[in-house]
Design brief:
heterodimer, A: 175 residues, alpha/beta, four-stranded parallel beta sheet, 7 helices, globular, B: 191 residues, five-stranded mixed beta sheet, two-stranded parallel sheet, 4 helices, 9 strands
């Protein structure tokens, strides 16, 4: 019988059943592979978003197939399309209702920068209102580009200090 | 009945208030002053049987008099003919009688003309902005409004900022000059 202070040791009997890892890595792995998107479809990019969700491109290969039309159940807002000033604060309001942790993908030229709409009516990039994690170029981007963006977001999530960020106050109290 | 005939009947009805007609590629346009536009359109609807208002649009001919205009595109299913009725709108007054009681579809068209040009329609049942939000202080399709937009702020409703245009194309100037003169790359406006 091992002593109480013994570190976890390799045991051939439980090989393959136990994984040693950091808590952050485990949390990030779970978060990154079950991203529930909030499909903020505002223009033609939404058509490509739908294509990405459909069988040919199949976003469920990356664990993001659960499109939620309720912001309270979603993790990542995919802003797909032209954000007009009239719509901008509605997008912000939906974003505000999403629970933490949450991410934003700006899909396409319009959501990233206003695109070809240098106009009195169009917000020049959703990053004026929301913190954007991934920008995807294209007008509209192909589904492969969206999937690439999603994988970039997963890479980004994998590097986050999720426990530290979430429990910062608690950890400060303890120490 | 064809459009030319409709135009001459309208001329008989209005007399000196009929400000001429013109034909371009078989399309007939007539000009009616704002004071008689309602009578003329009612005549078109009830007597000449133009039962379909295809479109109603505002125009800004900046530096001309009258500055604004409204164009009514009429179509008659009865006769299968098309008639365009134009009227000028004075810059200071900016008011026309509403035709929403003659053609219900004019309701939203007039709201759009009001939203974009600030032309008001007297007797309109619900003259609110239709594309921009209620409280937006500008009329964006006027020639002296920059395409880039202007800053505005309506707390909790909407805000707007001017877009970076890098000297891009601005509004056109009405004239018969070539496109290089008519559509300057940029145009300075005071307001």
């Amino acid at each position: 019988m091992a002593t109480e202070t013994a570190p976890a040791a390799y045991d051939s009997k439980i090989e393959g059943n136990i994984i040693f890892t950091r808590l952050d890595s485990a949390i990030n792995w779970m978060r990154g592979n079950s991203l529930w998107p909030m499909p903020m479809g505002l223009a033609c990019c939404a058509i490509e978003l739908m294509a990405t969700g459909a069988s040919r491109f199949d976003i469920s290969r990356f664990g993001a197939e659960v499109m939620r039309f309720s912001p309270r159940q979603s993790d990542v807002m995919i802003v797909a399309g032209t954000v007009t000033y009239k719509m901008a604060l509605a997008v912000k309001r939906i974003y505000d209702q999403m629970p933490e942790p949450k991410w934003v993908i700006a899909m396409g030229a319009c959501a990233s920068s206003g695109g070809m709409y240098r106009s009195y009516a169009v917000l020049q990039g959703i990053d004026h209102l929301l913190p954007v994690d991934v920008y995807i170029s294209g007008c509209p981007p192909r589904p492969e580009a969206l999937l690439e963006g999603l994988m970039r977001l997963q890479t980004k999530i994998a590097e986050e200090d999720s426990l530290l960020a979430q429990k910062r106050e608690l950890l400060e109290d303890i120490s | 009945m064809d459009a030319t005939e409709a135009s001459s009947k309208l001329e008989q009805e209005l007399g000196k208030d009929f400000h001429g007609s013109s034909m371009f590629r078989d399309e007939v346009s007539v000009v009616i002053p704002g004071s008689r536009i309602k009578d003329a359109l009612k005549f078109c609807r009830e007597v000449l049987l133009f039962d379909y208002l295809v479109d109603l649009s505002g125009i800004d001919n900046m530096d001309e008099d009258p500055r604004y205009g409204v164009v009514y595109e009429l179509y008659s299913y009865q006769y299968g003919c098309h008639l365009r009725v134009k009227t000028g709108v004075d810059e200071a007054e900016r008011e026309l009688p509403s035709v929403a009681d003659i053609w219900p579809t004019a309701n939203w068209h007039e709201r759009e003309a009001y939203d974009m040009f600030g032309i008001t329609f007297k007797g309109h049942p619900d003259l609110r902005r239709i594309l921009m939000w209620e409280g937006y202080p500008f009329f964006p399709l006027r020639k002296d409004f920059p395409l880039a937009g202007k800053q505005s702020e309506m707390p909790d409703v909407a805000f707007s900022e001017s877009a970076p245009l890098e000297g891009g194309p601005f509004v056109t100037s009405p004239s018969s000059a070539g496109t290089d003169k008519r559509e300057p790359r940029s145009r300075e406006t005071d307001s």
